[in-house]
Structures
1.
Amino acid sequence: MPIFFTQKFVKLAKDTMASLPTLTKPISETSFFLPKLINLEFSRSKIRPLTRSNVFKNSNFSSDGQCCPTFDVPLLSCSEVIERMRTSREGYKTKQLYLAMYSSVFGGITTDTAAMVIPMDDHMVHRGHGVFDTAAIMDGYLYELDQHLDRFLGSATMAKIQIPFDRESIRQILIRTVSVSKCRKGSLRYWFSAGPGDFQLSSSGCHQATLYAIVIKDQSPPDHNGIKVVTSSIPIKPLQFAVMKSVNYLPNALSKMEAEENDAYAAIWLDGDGFVAEGPNMNVAFVTKEKDLLMPCFDKILSGCTAKRVLVLAENLVKEGKLRGIRVENVSVEDAKRADEMMLIGSGILVRSVVQWDEEIIGNGREGPVTQALLNLILEDMKSGPPTVRVPVPY
C-alpha cells in the first residue's frame, strides 16, 4: 500500500509540474497543490509528518517557468519565537527604550521587550480601529495625565470603542505601569483598541476592547534650535477624524516624510478654507507684530493638551508686558508668514521655534524671545506646577 500511494503521488506531481508553464501564479501561491504538501516530508519509502526540528523549503518559479533558489522557513515553538524576537531587538540600535508594557489581553505588566506584542487579529492592527494618547513623565510625575485621559476617553467614544474599564481603574493601571518601569523622565503612551477576534471589517466579532500602555525613555538629547517647516501637500484629515486621536496616522506619517524629503522638520496642514491648521503631531502658534499670541481654532484640528496649557501659562507673559494679548481664531497663511515668531507646540517637542516656512523667513530668522519664554514656562510647570497637572508616581 505505501508503494502504491507513493507512485500515485509521483504521477500527480509529474502531471502538476507539466502544467506549470500555463499557470498564471507561481507555485508558491497556487492553493491546489501546496496545502497538501506543506505538512508532509517525503522519502522514497514512506511519508512522515514534519516535526518542529524540520525546516520547510519553498521554491518560486519565474515567468518563464524557471525554478528560483529555495529559502528555508523554520517552524518555531513559542519559546523559540520569543528568543528570536529578543535577539532581533538586540540587533539594531534605537534611541528609545521600552521599559514596561501593560496589556489587558494578558492582564498585567511585562518589562521584557520581547513580550511587548499585540495579537495579529486585533482590529487596531489590521483595521486601524483604535485610539491613543500620551502623557509626559518628568521627575517622577505624570504631566497632565488627567487632561490627556479625558481626551483619550472622548476619542474612544467617537471611535465607538466599548471602554473595558472605568476611568479610575484605567488611571491606576497607567500609574502602576510607570511605577513598575522605574522611569522618572520619559513618556507614557496608551491605546484603546476594538480588540482581537477576527479579520472582519466590523468589530462585532471582537471579544472585548483592549487597553495597552507602554513606558518609553527617549535617549535623544533635547534640541530647542529653530527649525524649518513646509506646507503639506498631503490632504488634511476630514473633521470627524481630525478631532479624534486615532491610530490612523498614515496622513501624518506621509506629511512628516514629505517634510524630511524637503530638509524640513515638519509639514503644516491647511484646512479646507485655506487657514492654518496644525502640524502632523503638534499644534502651531504665532506671535504677531502687535505682540499677540495667535493660535488657530480647535474646531477642525486635534485639541492639543500642551497647546491649551500654553494658552493658560501665556497669561503670565501678558501680565509681564511681553505679550499684548492672546487670541484663538482663524489664521491666514499670509498673516502667519508675516508674524514675528512661529512655534510648534506638543507633548513631544513642548515649544519649539520655527524660523522658516517654505521660502519665507519668519521674523528675523532666529529663535523668538516669546517662544523661549513659553518653553521655560512649560518646563517649570512640568517640574513644579500645581497638582492639577502633576500626578506623583509611587515608585
2.
Amino acid sequence: MIVTLMNLLRACWRPSSNQHARAGSDIAGRQDGLLWYKDTGQHVNGEFSMAVVQANNLLEDQCQIESGPLSFLDSGPYGTFVGVYDGHGGPETACYINDHLFHHLKRFASEQNSMSADVLKKAYEATEDGFFSVVTKQWPVKPQIAAVGSCCLVGVICGGILYVANVGDSRVVLGRHVKATGEVLAVQLSAEHNVSIESVRKELQSMHPEDRHIVVLKHNVWRVKGLIQVCRSIGDAYLKRSEFNREPLYAKFRLREPFHKPILSSEPSISVQPLQPHDQFLIFASDGLWEHLTNQEAVDIVHSSPRNGSARRLIKAALQEAAKKREMRYSDLKKIDRGVRRHFHDDITVIVVFLDSSLVSRASTYRGPSVSLRGGGVNLRSNTLAPYASQM
C-alpha cells in the first residue's frame, strides 16, 4: 500500500516526459526556477507552446499534449489532445488524470472507431471510477485523499472538429480573426462550473431544493457547502459518496448533516464545433491565468507577439498583474519560493495551440508529427517525499 502511494506521489513530481526525450533536452521542455516551459513544438494541426509556473509547495496543476493516434487502431481517428488538470486539496487527482484519461479516451475511440462527445463522456466516467477505486483502497491509511479533487479541461482536434469537455473552472479561449476589421476576437469555448457565477449557483440550488445551505457565502466567497467553489470535478469523494464523509477524515471537511445524493458532479460540459479557416489559435489555461487576465487581453498578447514562447509570455503577464495588485515588483515576486508564493498567485498552466488551416483541412489524410509531452514542475528529491508521506 505504501509503495503504491509513493509511486503515485513520485509520478506527480517527475519532470516533463516524452517517450523520445533526452533528460535535460529542449524536447522535454526547460526549467527556470519555478517556471517550466516548452516555447515551441509541432502538433498534427500546427504549432504549440506550453508553460507551467508553480506556486504551491506541491504542484497541483498537471497538463499534457498528445498528438497523433487518438485510438489503438491503425485506421482510427488522428489528431491532437490537450489536457489541463487543476488539482485542489493535493496533487493526487490531477496526477491520476494525467496518467489515465488519455488512455481511456483512446480505448473508447477504438471501440467506436471514431471521436465523439460520447467517447469523451465515457473517458471522464472511467477516470472518475478509477480514481474512486484508489480512494477506496487508500482510505484506511490515507483518508484525506477523499478530500482531493481536480478540475479537468480537455480539447480534442480531430477531422477538422474541435471537441471541448470541462468540469471545474479552467478555460479554453479561441482567437478568431475578423476579416472586416482585422481584429482577433476572444471567444470562450468552455462552460465553467464555479458557484461564484450566479447561473451556476441557481442550477445547483435547483438540483438540491431540499438543502437551503447547498451554497454558502463564506468570507465574501460563494462555496458549495461552504467548502469548495467548483460544483463539478474529478475526485472530491467526500462530497459525492457519504461513506467518505466521516471520521477519520479531518473534521473541517466533514458535513454535519448526511447527504443521500452526490453534492458535486463529474459530468463534463461538452461542446462540438467545426474549426473555421479564420480560427487562429486556442488558449487552454487553469484559472490561475484567468484571475489576472481577461479573455481578450490573453488573445491580444498571443496575437501581437511571435508564436515562440507564447505560453511563457502569458504567464509573465499574469505574474506582472499579480505583483501589481500587491504593490510589488515583478522581479521581487519571482524571488518568492513555492508555498509562500501561493499567497500571491495560484499554480498557472497555459497551453497555446496554433491552428494551421491547411493542416486542419487535411486532417483526414495527414499523419505527421506524433507528440507526447507533459508539463513539469520543481523536481523534489526522493527524501523530500518521506515526511509528507508519513504525515498522510
3.
Amino acid sequence: MEGVKLVEKVVIVPEMPTNRRRIFLSNLDLPLVAYQESVSFYDPPENKISFSESYNTLYRALRSLLVPYDFFAGRLVPALEDNSRLEIDCNGAGIVVAAARTDTRLSQLGGLFAPKPDLKHLVAFLREEGEDEMEFKDKPLLYIQLTQFGCGSLALASRYNHCVLDGAAARDFEKNLAAFTRGDDLVIVPNPDRTIFKARNPPRISHPHHEYSRPSEIRENLFSVGGKRCTNVMHSRIPHNTTHLIHIPPQRIASLKMAALKDGKLKKCTTFHAIAAKVWKARSIATKIHDEVCSTMLFPVDVRRIVVPPVPIGFAGNALVPGFARASVRELKDKEDSYIVRKVQEGVERFDDEYVRSGIDWLEVHRGRPCNENSFSLVAWFRLGLEEDVFSWGKLKYATPVVLKPGLVFLLPGLEGDGGLNICLDLPDDQVDEFHRLLME
C-alpha cells in the first residue's frame, strides 16, 4: 500500500456534559486490558458525499454517541475501593479520531477477508508516541481512523481497549454509530453496569476450571495496576510465525457434519461444532504436541442469557467467557469424529449460572487468565453480523481483524454467496501444510 497521509487527528469529547462516575470492572473484564484492532471496508459512497463530509459526519456522530457511551470517553484508574484493581473513570477526556488518505485503490489490497500487513496502515495514526510507557490514566479507551482510498472506497478502523467491550457489545456500538451517522436514534441503549458479574463474598469455587491458568511468577498479574503496559500478554511465549488463510468450501463443511453424525452417537452437529472439532484435532497434531499431552481449545461462550438473572439488554461489557474442549493428543488421533465433536459440545453445555459464578470466583482467588498451556483460542468472527451495518456513506462490505495474535485461530466469512468459511491461523509453513492436509482428509 502506498503511503497513507494524515488529513487531521482530533480528540472527540461528549457533546454535552455527562455525570462523573466510576464503573466497576469485573473479573471477566480485567484479564482483557489490551487493545483490539479491526477494520471495515466500504465501496465509494453512492450519494457522492465528499471525504470531508464523511469524516465530519463521523465526528458529529461520535460526539453524540459519547453521551450514552460516556465510559468510552473515560480512562482506566485504580479502583477507589481496591487500588489493586482497575475501573473506568467517566471523566469525559474523550477519544482520538483520525482522518487519512491514500492513493492506493482498494482493489490493490487483494483479498480483504483476513489480517494482512497492509492493514496496519489503516491504524497507522492510532498509536501514541511512547505509548508503552504511558500511564493507564493517560490512554484513551477508543481510537478510530477513517481512511479514503484512491478509488473513493473507505476503511473505518477501530482500536479499543477490550476491557470495555466484548465482541457482542462492540457490535452494538457499531450499530449505534452507523445509526447516528444516518441521523437516526440509538438502536440499542448501552448498559455498562457489570456488577452482575461481581465475585461472591466469600468466593465459592464449585467446579474445576481448566479454561484458566494461574499467573506464573515471571508474568505480569493482569489484575494489577502496578505496570504501565497495556498490551496483550496472553500466549506471549509463542513465537511469531506467518498468518495463513485456508478456505473451507460449503461441501467440505457439509461432509464434516455428516461424518460426525454417521455413527448415530450425536443428535445434532452445527457448523461451528464440526469445524471447531476438526481445527482442534488438526492443529494439535500439526504443532507436534506429544501424544500424552492434554490439548485445550478455548472458544468464547456468551453467558448473557445463561446467568440468573439474565444480563440486561444492551449490556456493554465483557460477558464472553472461555469455554473449552480438552483431550489428550492421542485421543484426538484415535477417537472417532463424533467423540471429538461431543467434547466441543460439552464445552458449551457445561455452562449454567453456577458454573459462571464459580469461574468468576476462581479468578477472584487466583487472579489468573485464560489457559495458555498447550492451548489456543478459536474465535468465530463470522457470527458477529457486522455486515448488516449501514453508515451514511454506505453498507459495510467486509470486516476483519487487523492482526492475528499468536495463539488465536479465527473463523472468518468466506466469499459473499460462497457459503464457506476461512480459517486464519499463525503457524510455521511446515506446520500449516500438515494442518491443511489433516483438515481436508
